[in-house]
Every structure is written in structure tokens, then in C-alpha cells.
């Protein structure tokens, strides 16, 4: 892309750290041009294109966002006749970005609030969120929960991208409150701190585990994330605001991560930790059984590291299903950890590597187990580990 390097760097600074396939060590894919054409045709049939002649106010808001976030793209916005407060974004044809806004959403928002909404959607495109794996395609629950966490993280970045598009910051906060309630100005006396008490209340109650299944963070959590952003050096740089920002970007991301985790009661990290523990057990067993037998010394090591029950489970499993089934079991657990953060996977792999030194039998058998584990955990290349 010919996007100015400076703008590209500025945009990258908006990305919330956990919003990235890189976070899980996975490469992006691309969207075929044929699919883009199909989408455009669908919009031309089912929606109405925002042009300056018919919708001058909306068009000017769209034009502003186009210039701020994506001057090298052509932003094409469509309005769809629907009362749902929804918007979506997709890569368009010929270097364009296509955004669809439902009419209910437009009616609810002021022009400046629309800048936030459009900026948010364009952010989804610029940060490649349309390339993220689909939740429906995930094979198991742990994979699914981690992709959902990735999608919630993506909303944080998209909100930041909307935030830098508004003329008055308060309108970004108001847009979120309107999206949360579906209520227009007539019913709202905007009081940010009063609304944020809701997020504290949720945290004090230990978070909500069902939120693990949501594609979006709670609106009050999103609002807090924007407030942290407003105080950050990243934002100060974007708006060329003088003075010293209260928090640096590392602190910004730390606070957001904490809020997101608190909202679900830290349950995802518990689930991932448990799954990584399972993977370690089956990984070690795969290494030990790679020569076809579990020696006395290996049984003692299993007992020492995974308890008597772990050792008995290993023996029962091998007796019932045979040694080959062990590696299959290990591989299926590794599959479920694909989208877990790189750090967790790195620690797991290092632990497995340590155990590999204790396994008996042919070195080539052990190496093949390790190689398979590397591939399945999507480590990419060796140096990336
Ligand atoms: Zn979004």
C-alpha cells in the first residue's frame, strides 16, 4: 500500500496489544477480489450508497473519517434500512473500504457521533479484523473462547480508531452510551462517572463468565478502555496535545487487559492454564511412549510430576487405546491451544523440551514429536520461539 509511512506508524500505535493474530503467532490471510465484488453487488442491491448530493451531512462525516484514517483508500458507505443499531465493514473493490450503517444507528447519532461509528468500522478494516478466524469454524471450546477474546480485543482497537475521528471527545463516549441503550439524546443526561460505576459494580461481583461467549466487551468496559486511551501518550501524540500524558502505552494496554479480564473474572486465563497443563501431560506421555514402551524410570517420572493418578491414567490409556493414540490425544489438545497467547505456548513448549531430555528410545522418534508440537502450536519459524 502507498499509505504514508508516518500514518501507518501512527495507526499501528492504536492497536491494543492483545488484538493481533501475531499475539497467537499466526499469519494473516487475504480476501479474494471475487468475494469483494460479490459483497459490493449485494450492497448495491440491499442498501443505498451515501453520496454528497443526497446525504450531504452523512457524506461530510464519512469524508472526514476517510481523510483522517485512510486517505489512500476510497471509503464507500451504504445505509441499510434496518432498526438494529448495527454497522459493518468489509474490504471493497479497487482499493476501497466498504461500510454499511443501519438507518437505526444513523437516526440515533449526531454527525460527530457518526464520525466515531464510521471511524470504528474503518478501524476494523485497517487492522485486518476481517481476516480473523471465524468462531463457527473453531473445532473445540477452548479455541472458540480464545477467538472470542481476540474479537473483543479487536473492538478496543476499533474504538480507539473511532475516538481519533471525533471533533469533540465527549461524542465518542456518548456514541457508546447510545449503542448500549439504544436511546436518543432526549433521554440522556450524559454523566460519564455515573455510567462507569456500572463497570465497577460488575467487577466487584467477580465479573460475568457468560461474557466469555460475547463478541464485544460490555459497553461500560469499552467506555473505560477509551478513558484510559484518552489519558495515554498514544492519544496525546495523535492529537499533538502538549504536556505529559498520565500513562504510557504499556500502562494503557495493561489497564485495558486488566479491565477485560476482570469483566469475565479472569476465567479465560484459568481455562488456558488448565488446557496447557493437559497438553504438557499428554506431550510428556507422547515423548515417553515414542519408543513404544513406558519404562519403569519413565513411570516414576510421570508419578513424580503428575501424581499417582496421572501415572495410572497414562497406564490405563495406553492399555486401552495403544501407544499411537497418545500422540493423537496430544495433537488434539495442541490444536485447541492454537489461539492462546504466544507466551503461554512458549512456556509449554520449553517444558515439553525439558522432558524430552528424559525420554528413552530413539532420538529421531523424540524429535518427530517435538516437530509436530511446533507445527501445531503455529510457532512459524524457529527464531520466533
Ligand atoms: Zn466493532
Quick tags:
single chain; 385 residues; mainly alpha; four-stranded mixed β-sheet; 61% helix; disordered C terminus; binds zinc ion
Number of helices: 16
Question: What is the typical, i.e. mean, pLDDT?
Answer: 90
Q: Name the overall outline.
A: elongated
- Helix proportion range: 55-70%
Total discrete domains:
2
Oligomer classification: single chain
Q: What share of the residues does DSSP label as strand, in percent? A: 5-15%
Classification by helices and strands: mainly alpha
- C-alpha end-to-end distance: 29 Å
H and E order: HHEHEEEHHHHHHHHHHHHH
Low-confidence stretches: 380-385
Strand order within the widest beta sheet: 1-2-4-3
| Bound ions, cofactors and other small molecules, one mention each | zinc ion
User: Whole-number radius of gyration?
Assistant: 25 Å
**Overall number of strands:** 4
Major β-sheet, in short?
4 strands, mixed
